[in-house]
Amino acid sequence: MFTGIVQGMATVEEVQAAPGLTTFVIRLPEDKTDGVAIGASVAINGTCLTVTRQEGSALYFDAIQETLRLTTLGDLKPGDSINFERAARIGDEIGGHLLSGHVHTTATITETIRPENNVTLWFEVPEQWMKYIFAKGYIAINGASLTIGEVQDNRFNVHLIPETLRATTFGTATEGTRVNLEIDSQTQTIVDTLARLGYDQPPQPR
């Protein structure tokens, strides 16, 4: 499990492609790899991956084709920056909301608004996922727990404070960039339960 509080940015050093498998070599800040063990879980842009090898502060992760299909990891290339979070431990503060690291879909940044001291990003989402996105609800974008601002048709926005821009890759986000989305699990459960009970149907005329 993860908290959605990004612990920093790391750099993709190498992408090793093999049939059916891609290995990412990602270098974390040296003070963020203490206690890492083979088999540990780390969220890379919100995607839970397993450490398969370690060389100093460089960690190796394998991703199969299904992972690449469902996420933006297949877009990564050497030199790219990513958000990372190591798995939460019992007793850690949950500053965001609980995440599984299982990406549901991807979205595209369609607009960036940069007034003084903050940024608003608009995202376009596949329409079938919009039923889980509500104003002031939770969502995880590239592993960061964020509060949804406005919702319009198949778009929504988030408002980012300077600290979020400093600590994550959102500080350099540009229009056209794809991101990973993890829907809030509680919201998904409630919406799906109500749908099974028939409450998602329009009222019948009398």
From TrEMBL:
It is an enzyme of class 2 (transferase). Keywords: Repeat. Lumazine-binding repeats lie at residues 1-97, 98-194. InterPro entries: ATP_synth_asu-like_sf, Lumazine-bd, Lumazine-bd_dom, Riboflavin_synthase-like_b-brl. CDD domains: Riboflavin_synthase_like (cd00402). Residues 1-97, 98-194 form the Lumazine-binding domain. The keyword Repeat applies. Its EC number is 2.5.1.9. It comes from the Bacteria. Signal peptide: none annotated. This is Riboflavin synthase. It comes from Marinobacter qingdaonensis.
